UniProtKB/TrEMBL annotation:
Keyword Ribonucleoprotein applies: no
Cited HAMAP family: ScpB (MF_01804)
Family the UniProt entry places it in: Belongs to the ScpB family.
A biological process term (GO) from this entry: DNA replication
Entry keyword annotation includes S-adenosyl-L-methionine: no
Function: Participates in chromosomal partition during cell division. May act via the formation of a condensin-like complex containing Smc and ScpA that pull DNA away from mid-cell into both cell halves.
GO cellular component: cytoplasm
Official protein name in the record: Segregation and condensation protein B
Intracellular or extracellular location(s): Cytoplasm
PANTHER family from the UniProt entry: SEGREGATION AND CONDENSATION PROTEIN B (PTHR34298)
This protein's UniProt keywords: Cell cycle, Cell division, Chromosome partition, Cytoplasm
Subunit details: Homodimer. Homodimerization may be required to stabilize the binding of ScpA to the Smc head domains. Component of a cohesin-like complex composed of ScpA, ScpB and the Smc homodimer, in which ScpA and ScpB bind to the head domain of Smc. The presence of the three proteins is required for the association of the complex with DNA.
Length: 199
């Protein structure tokens, strides 16, 4: 495998790893190259991001590498956060929200085990919309973030407390429970679809 190809794959792995990042050892195992080679490629990527007009940078924190935005562009990201977003949520965000609502507190990894797919973006979307929030850290290896629903979640869905959530049938698998919960939230989301102008 050529160095440029490995560099592209490594960059993709950094992106896919999200906020948690990925270690040199993990990259070494995945790419089947030495850790020294991984360090060399990481240094090249770091140089690329620092010496060109790029919007991201390479960060090293708590033994893992991850991609992040550049601080000098922060005012634009703030504008983006403050810009109103369409109320309608994606199916992935609805599924993720349903899981968190009924299984909270829950980590992103646990969400992914239930959904069967990576859930970085849906979680980020829900955090950005303030429907979920960090509620602590799990007492396990790496102390992953625990997520739970917020006060804004209750307001958005017209609930006074989590006890107002409809009970899920017992004796069902995770996927069936997820489907039941997802249908509940989708009913609320449908009202916003109906309010949108047709093309």
């Amino acid at each position: 495998m050529e160095i440029q190809q490995m560099k592209a794959i490594l960059e993709g792995l950094l992106f896919a790893s999200g906020d948690e990042g990925i270690t040199v050892k993990q990259l070494s195992n995945i790419l089947e190259i030495t850790e020294a080679s991984v360090h060399t490629i990481l240094e090249e990527l770091k140089y690329d991001y620092e010496n060109r007009e790029r919007g991201i940078m390479l960060m090293h924190s708590h033994g893992a590498y991850h991609l992040t935005t550049k601080p000098e562009h922060s005012k634009f990201y703030q504008k983006f956060i403050e810009t109103p977003h369409p109320t309608r949520m994606s199916q992935a965000a609805l599924e993720t929200l349903a899981i968190i609502a009924y299984q909270q507190p829950i980590t992103r990894t646990e969400i992914e085990e239930i959904r069967g797919v990576k859930s970085d973006r849906p979680v980020q979307t829900l955090v950005a919309r303030m429907l979920i929030e960090e509620v602590g850290r799990k007492d396990s290896i790496g102390r992953p973030i625990l997520f739970g629903t917020s006060k804004e979640f209750l307001t958005f869905f017209g609930l006074t407390s989590l006890e107002d959530l409809p009970p899920l049938p017992e004796g069902q698998s995770n996927s069936e429970l997820e489907e039941e919960a997802d249908l509940f939230f989708e009913r609320f989301n449908e009202q916003f679809k109906d309010d949108e102008p047709s093309n």
